[in-house]
Design goal:
Layout: E1 10-19, H1 22-52, H2 60-74, H3 76-83, H4 94-113, E2 129-134, E3 152-155, E4 158-161, E5 165-170, H5 174-178, E6 183-192, E7 198-206, E8 221-226, E9 232-234, E10 239-240, H6 245-269, H7 278-312, E11 315-319, H8 323-326, H9 333-339, H10 341-354, E12 358-362, E13 392-394, E14 401-403, H11 404-418
Parallel strand pairs: 8-11, 11-12
Antiparallel strand pairs: 1-5, 1-7, 2-6, 3-4, 4-5, 6-7, 8-9, 9-10, 13-14
Helix pairs in contact: 1-2, 1-4, 2-3, 6-7, 7-10
Protein name: RNA-guided endonuclease InsQ/TnpB family protein
Family: In the C-terminal section; belongs to the transposase 35 family.
GO molecular function, one term: endonuclease activity
Length: about 425
Amino acid sequence: MSKTMAQLPYHYGVKIRIFPSTEQKRLIKRNSDASRFIYNEMNGINRELYLLRQVKLPIKLVQQRIQTLENRIKSPATGISNIHGWLNNPDYDSDMKANTIKNYRSAWNLFRKVHRSGTPVFHKRRTEQRYQTSNHYTAKRGEPNMMNGSLRLLDCKHVRIAKLGRVRFKGMPQNLYARRDNIRIGTATISMDATGRYYLSLQLGSEQPFVKKLNAAIQSSIGIDLNTDNFLTDSTGNIVANPRYYRSIRGKLAKAQRKLSRRALRAKKEHRSLRDAKNYQKQRLVVANIQRKVANRRNNFLHLISTTLIKNHDLVVAEELRSKNLLRNHALAMSIADVGWRTFLEMLSYKANLYDRQFVTVSPRNTTQTCYACSFVMGTRNTSKLTLADREWTCPNCGIHHIRDLNAAQNTLAKGLAK
């Protein structure tokens, strides 16, 4: 008996662009809308149950309604479909319904574990489309791989998806396609972004590692200091400049958004829906394309830097930065959002696991204010703390001259080694 996806030792994710036909686009939209409806319906049932349970009087009508909703939420796949018969249409993927229910319950589990994540909220109708489906294997087709499931590759340019049929794609990495016989597909997500591009995200699993094993002889540890002046400074003194991708197109984006606002205002004055206003939708695509290009350039930069750090060092130490808290500083919010620290740290984390390296985060407390040589902390013994304007400083205790970011990176590495 073959292993399940969870039992496989190695997992990987890949996102490829697909090119559906007009009919396939219609089916994607219908499944995306149905997925959002089921999620919101479950959320609405839970909210109503919460309010009804506040009624302390034993009112028979209320008790009956609570029992009805509880039965419906226990088996939403049939409970919601029986009330809303249109969900039984053959256009809808049954795995889409199951994954939507699973995602809603996962959102509640996340709230119970991490309360700051918040309770599930209603999903708004947006330009973007998304739904999840699952892959199924049968014993008669042999050992599960990328070529014999219900969602399978037909060749290097075509994939078969449940309800959609044959869809053309591009962008599958050659190393993955070459190993298609010993890789299996799990959950798949079909999505459309704001620019109208369609993508297929695949969860892959295998008994063998997805990347080549790196040289284990590397004995190199490095600490990195993330800042907005430069993107990062490492403990050896190397500096990576901040590309500031958003700032480079800020004027162009603002001009396009002003034009979009004027078209929205005109459509509203003429009592036309924005979804039916062709000029508005045309300009919306212009704005979305500018934002997509910036996001792609930033992600490419972060991937290159994170992969280089992980491949060349057996230990990488960084500060545990909470971008959500840092963004409360309105003077630096735009610069902090532009560099993408949180995304960068997440990339380092999963790539360290992928390449069998070590990535450690430490508290950023006093990494900038502490002298690396003598451990003197600025702000003590009648000294004033360093400000953001102080890029270089001399320790009043030992007299060593420090470059602010290099000193912080060295302190970060020391904390990581101690940890």
